[in-house]
Amino acid sequence: MIKINIDGSFLTNLNTGGWGAIGRDHLGEPVFAACGLVPVAADALQTELMALIEAIPVAELLGISRVIFCTDCSELKKAIETNSYDMSRLGPLFMQAKYLMRLAFSDYSVEFCPRACNSPAHKLAMLGGVWNQGSPGLWIHDIPPDVMNSVAKESVGP
Question: 69-87 pLDDT, tens per residue?
């Protein structure tokens, strides 16, 4: 089982944002990090949702079949676990995320984690907000130093 922390960042003045995801093994060691630009976004919930949608094919590409997605957005967790958001303006994207998870994984869940426990994914989402490489960033080995510093701080605690 791989735990994937996801996060989105939203730039209100530009109506854009970024997404970030970091996968960790059972020891908490990073197995990948990814980020990308969300070129058009209406709000923070949309960027959080895009982080989930973008993390799914990354995990699938790496052969991950059992996953726990961790988000600091309780609204995203509720939208994925229920049908209550399916008729909202983001409904088609929520349904797409649920469909992709059913196809890609033999076992999956979405869990809430406090913002303080999502710092590495947040750093990646901020990087994604200024990402201009054309395609998402994906690191398997050389994970960006800022992100690794956040991972190290999390494992040490406050």
Answer: 999 999 999 999 999 999 9
